[in-house]
Design brief:
Length: about 450
Amino acid sequence: MPSAANPPHECTVFFLPGLGLDAASAGAIAAAADPRLRVVGIDLLDQGRAASVDDLADTALERIAAEADGGPFLVCGHSLGGKVAARVMARVLAGTEQVFGLAGAVLLAPSPPTPEPMPDDKRAEMLATAQGDHLSREDAAAFVAANVTAPLSTEVHEAAVDAVVRQPASAWRDWLTAGSLEDATGLVGVLDLPVVVLAGDADESLGADAQPDLIADVYPRARVEQMPGVGHLLPYETPERVAAVLAETWDAIRAAAPVVPAEWGRVIASTRVDVAVRRTLARRAIADDRGRAARSLNPAQIQTLRALASLLVPQGEGGTIDLATRIDDMLAEGGTDGWRPLGSPADPIAYARGLDAIAAVWPTGLAEQRHLIVRLITDGIAADGLGADGIRSWFEDARNDLLRMWLAHPASLARIGFDGFAVGGTAQQPAGWATIAAGGRETWEPSELGQTVVEDAA
């Protein structure tokens, strides 16, 4: 049986179902999923409460923490679950939860963080069917039929109706009168991570035409995919396409970012790590948006910096950190170290001038590129407003910046075997080391670091 340290999958998908549905609605998606993905359905409404997005997020996060293995995960939220997913992701990226590994999301006709658009007559009609302990089977069947474009197979239809009947009607009432009307934008903020939104073209309120406006302020990287001939119940209507998009999304993330090993993820998620540290590492682990507009440098300068980074900080095979984009962010946000030689311009100006000078003489051959790098280190080159000495000094700073950006990533910390970030924590007593020995490790440390050190009982 595979151990937690060596899971048989690459990524976990946590599925948050929509109103009236439960974890079982992920069944067809899980059956069609790529074997590299583990799909875990989560019951959100079994406690009969849905008045607060944060209450639902509490339920989701408790179950995610119990099922997480420390490795990367995607959130897949449908309808109500989409609104909850936004809050879950915001809390994970805030570092307040003992969870690590969020990589992105696939959202299915998601309810937005803003109040959900729903006609008053439809809201009143749904409330009228939810007055007892549970919806009647007849009303449940009508709900399912009203939210699909084409009739489901008898087996799938009955499974969906069973799910609706199982849900407490109190959760329906809470959601329709409070949860769906809640404006959670202040709690969610902007979630800058890879997101794909799937929505049917026959969905009345949360369909493909409505989604771009509903999500634009929350998910700057989101891509909306229209599902022709599909209504609102995507997990039942088109599970194979949902499964395919989950795999495509994971492939794109895996190609664009290094993976933090699961053992290291479990350390970051533990009480040994401060909230601020977990927040920083969680955000640094998100794949870079290589297609976004440059913020301080221009596109040509970004490309030159990427070419330099590939030679100065080679990252090996697999997903790599886009060091050039991260330096561009640093320059735009004023996050440099503040030091520069007397007479040198501010860092954004020095970077622009230095990169323009290098681009003007950048050769095509690899050997010549390496020779130019040596020349930049030893002699410098002429540059507008910098001079040879100035560009040599700037290039020293740039090399340090590139290395710092690489080393700041949690996958890089794992790669060099550094777990010194796990010495604060949220427990009553600050964490630290009980024993220190060459080639040894304590029981909480990743197993690759050495032999377990057991303290002498005496």
